[in-house]
Amino acid sequence: MRLLIWGASPLGGWLASRLHQAQYDVIWLADTLLPFPLIDGLELVSGQSRQKITGLRVWTEPQEALTPLPEWVIFAMPGWGLSRALTTLAMTAAPEKLPHALSLQPGIGSLEKLTSLLGAEKSLHAVITREFVWTDTSIVTDGAGGFVVSEHPQAAFIGELLQQAGLGKPRTAPADSLGWSDVFWRLHANALPTLLNISPASVYDDPNIWQLEYRQLREAIMVIDRRNINLVNLPGIHVPLLAWLVRLLPPHWLAKILKRRIRPPSLRADLEQQSGHSDAAYLNGAVAQVAYGLQLPAPVNHVLALSVTDVAEGRIQWSHFHNNLDYLQTLIRVASRHV
User: Structure pTM?
Assistant: First the structure.
C-alpha cells in the first residue's frame, strides 16, 4: 500500500518517518519550505529517545508525488493549506479514482472539504493532541497526548496506522462531536494572546482581557448547546468537563482553574512566521459562522477571527493590536450592534 503524507509540518515529517520505519511504502510531500535541508536524514526525539531516519523519500512537487496515485493521502498541513492541496489532487484523476484521505487539520471545515471532493466513503478526520516542533534538524515531541479518529468504516485501519506511528492507542468518536471538541479545546487562550501579543497567562490575570476570553467561550458553548453537540474527551484533555466549568462556574473561579491548563497559542506561529495565512477561520470563525446561521450573537469570535486573519494576510499591522485592548474592545462593540 502506497501512502502519501502531504505537508511540510513537523507532524507530517514525524508520520512519514515513523511509517517509513514501520516498512510502509511512504512518500513525504514537503511542498513548502522546510526549516533545514534534509541532507543526512531526520532525527526524531521523544523524551530520552532519539532515532535517526534515513532512506525516506521526500518530494517537493505534487505532480511527481501523485504519480502513480497513492491508496491513501494524509494531509498534515495547516487548515489554510488544504484547499490548494485538494485543488491539485482534483486535477490528477476523476473523482472515483482518487485515493482515500485523512485530514489532520484543526477545527471545523477540513472534513467537509474532503467530503465535497472525495465523498463521505473516502474521507476521515483525526484530532491529534500531541505537539510536534522543529528543533535544529530534529522533530521533537514530549510524548503527551494522543489521537481520536472520526467514526468511519476505515477508522480501524487509520487507528492502527497512527498507533504504529507512535501516537498512542486508537479511539473513535462521531465526526461532529470530534470537530467541535477540537474547536472548544483550541479556543482557550489562543486568539487573544496571539492578537494582543501577550503571554497566555495574562489572559487570566487581567480582568478586562479575561472578560473577552470568557465571552468567547460562552459564545462557543451557546452554539454547541443549541446544536446538541455531545463533546468528547480528547487524549489528555477533558473537554466535556471544561465545557461544564464554563457553563457553571463564576467567571473569577473559572479563570483560576483555566490558568492551570495553559498551552502555547497555536495561532501565533503563523503571525510570527509571516506565512500570510491563519487557521483562525476554522476555530473562532467556525463558531461565528454557525452562530450566525442559528441567529445567535457571537461578536467576540467574529472579531477575533477577522482580526487574526487580517493581520496574517497583511491587511492590518499586527502592532496595531499589541497591548492595545481598547482598540479590540472598540471593534467588538461595533460588531455587537451588527452580528
Answer: 0.95
Query: Which residues partner with 134 through β-bridges?
Result: 139
Q: For the chain, give every domain's residue range.
A: 2-173, 178-336
* pLDDT tens digits, 220-274: 999 999 999 999 999 999 999 999 999 999 999 999 999 998 888 999 999 998 9
E-strand stretches of 131-262: 133-135, 138-141, 147-150, 172-173
Q: What is the fold, at CATH topology level, of the domain defined by 178-336?
A: N-(1-d-carboxylethyl)-l-norvaline Dehydrogenase; domain 2 (1.10.1040)
Peptide bond into 68 cis (omega under 30): yes
Contact 309, 280 (CB under 8 A): yes
Of 5, 1, 128, which Cα lies nearest the Cα of 56? 5
Q: Give dist(CA 284, CA 278) in Å, integer.
A: 11
Number of H helices, E strands in the chain: 15, 12
DSSP label of 99: P
Contact of 25 with 2, CB cutoff 8 Å: yes
Phi, psi for 193 (deg, rounded to 5): -65, -30
Instruction: Please check whether the domain covering 2-173 is classified as CATH 3.60.15.10.
Output: no
User: Phi/psi zone of residue 64: left (φ > 0), alpha (ψ -120 to 50 degrees), beta?
Assistant: alpha
**Res. 3: pLDDT tops 90:** yes
User: What are the Cα distances from residue 58, in Å, to 4, 5, 216, 323?
Assistant: 10, 10, 41, 42
Q: Which residues pair with 92 in a beta bridge?
A: none
